[in-house]
Design goal:
There is one protein chain. This protein is α+β, with helices and mostly antiparallel strands and about 150 residues long. The two termini are about 25 Å apart. The longest helix is centred in the C-terminal third of the chain and has 20 residues.
């Protein structure tokens, strides 16, 4: 799957996170020798989107509504994700360690770090250097409309 690469924004099609947006952290083309013998990828996404913000709201209220984001981390079959044309330049490989996902307590810490990274990027979207990456970041944080 040459299309699904690290940093690509995808839409999850199956499972409890169906209809949610996620970013690919790492892909496994031929699977691995463990329990997953199929092509799969590690994705980090938004389970609960940030709430709507208007111009009339105070800074305190904007901050509070932006903090409502909830992340998820999951291994997904590549057939259960839909790649979009957008990419994001967030460095998720440093935050999401594969060894930490096996332990439930460490997975909570990974989600907290991911939430901090997503919150930081969401509140500072104007600091993105590339226009293409800025469009991908903007798309990633918007609620999926269908």
């Amino acid at each position: 799957m040459a299309i699904i690469k690290s940093g690509k924004v995808v839409i999850v099609l199956a499972g409890r996170h169906a209809g949610r947006k996620a970013v690919v952290v790492k892909t496994y083309e031929d699977g691995n020798s463990d329990d997953k013998r199929f092509s799969h990828c590690l994705v980090a996404g938004i389970e609960r989107n940030p709430r709507k913000v208007t111009r009339a709201m105070s800074k305190k209220k904007v901050e509070k509504r932006s903090r409502s984001m909830k992340p998820f981390v999951k291994y997904m079959n590549v057939r259960h994700v839909f790649p979009t044309r957008y990419t994001v330049d967030m460095d998720l490989k440093k935050v999401v360690e594969e060894t930490d996902l096996a332990d439930p307590e460490k997975k909570v810490d990974v989600k907290k770090a991911l939430k901090k990274l997503f919150d930081d990027r969401y509140l500072n979207q104007k600091n993105v250097t590339s226009e293409k990456k800025a469009a991908g970041s903007n798309y990633f944080f918007q609620k999926l409309r269908f």
